[in-house]
Amino acid sequence: MSPSKATMVTLALALLVTLASGHSDTSSVLLREDNFESALAADNFFVMFYAPWCDYCKKLAPTWAQLAEARNNEAAGLVKVGRVDCTTDGDLCTQHDVTGYPTLMLFRKSDTKQGTKYRGGRNLELFNAFLNEQLGAASGSTGGDGEKEDGSDDDVPTPPTPPASPLLELTEDTFAKHISSGKHFVKFYAPWCGHCTKLAPTWEELARSLEHERDIQVSKIDCTQYRPICTDFEVKGYPTLLWIEDGKKIEKYTGPRSHDDLKAYVAKMAGGLASLAEGGEDGAKLEGADKEDNKSVVVQLSEGDFAHAIAKGVTVVKFYAPWCGHCMRLAPTWEQLAEKLAARTDVTIAKVDCTVDGNKELCGDQEVNGYPTVFLYRAGEKVTEYYGPRSLDDLHEFVVQHLAQQDDGPHDEL
Asked: Do the first three CATH levels of 29-133 and 299-405 match, i.e. the same topology?
């Protein structure tokens, strides 16, 4: 094959690879090691780091081309859209800690070293919302038809909160006054955030389930519109859920985001809920809500009496937190287990509330890493942790097996 034919074949193959990769568009700026720093020195850049063989990259390519066509054609655009092929410029991708494809990063003008990773959904609306929020545009150009430059949001399809909803949408004018007194559970969010969108219906449900709790308010605030407030409360990711009392941040919620888990957390922070104390619409009951019930045969232990309580015989201890949904579900079964073994004098069924002052250190010493945790002790020594199913029969069988091991003679059953 002649050199000219070989060259033509090579170019043809390169073209086929380019077309197959989905990056045949010329809208986005191809960034390489020789032009990366100069390009980013002149403009803000939203960059896709990709590999031609990556299926996710191919799927994203048409949307990326649309975004680039809209953004890069603006006369004085807010941001340019580019791409880096990590199969040809691997060092550049390594420099920016690209470990998967596609990786999307926003670089602010003149900052070629530190980019902000985009972690939201991959469509034009979310891309534009992210760029406008990160770069400080009120609403800016959306890259679509009917875009506005006066800062109004008439074309943004954000449905208003129904008037009847107990979930409060806070603003710059209402935030400070609203949280100045009482107990508040506040969601700090961004419209483009996928996790925020997923949480939205659950947050609405939480607000409705707590609307009759006089001392507790559930609310939310859009950090893309009221960024200074979110900055003051050290919000660094979305959604951020903060418990606030009398205007002061108490703590950040980091637990599961189901309705039951969120409601249990509120109950814990508020010192109980009227709806739970009365059984609530779902009949839920906080772990430990039966402390005044004299019929309970589960022994409540604390740091002061723990060592003495486990010193003799077999003691099976459940370490829990009142706000833990799994703990609440286990509570009635734990009571039944204690009742079933009440006739035995060589076994004690007990529990420890790890949220109580003094008990926190105890739970740490016992290496409790999650709730509920069940440990079996014999003569003061930890023997094993229970990992099995949490039915009454399974728990009973677990205890019986260990009781049989300590008896003098062999026993097949209790």
From this structure: yes
From the candidates 93, 327, 354, 363, give the one annotated as an active-site residue. 327
Q: What is the pLDDT of residues 120-153, one digit of tens each?
A: 788 888 888 888 888 865 333 333 333 333 333 3
What distance in Å separates the CA atoms of residue 173 and residue 128, rounded to the nearest whole number? 26
Query: Is 57 among the catalytic positions?
Result: no
- Please give the class, per CATH, of domain 168-270: alpha beta
Q: Which of 57, 86, 93, 196 is catalytic?
A: 196
Active site residue 196: yes
Q: Is 193 a catalytic residue?
A: yes
**86 tagged catalytic:** no
| pLDDT digits 0-9 by tens, 161-191 | 334 568 899 999 999 999 998 899 999 999 8
CATH of domain 29-133: 3.40.30.10
Superfamily of domain 299-405: Glutaredoxin (3.40.30.10)
- Amino acid letter for position 87: T
Q: Residue 216 in contact with residue 270, Cβ under 8 Å?
A: yes
What tokens does 177 get?
């006054």
In this predicted structure, what is the pLDDT of residue 116?
84
Domain extents in the chain? 29-133, 168-270, 299-405
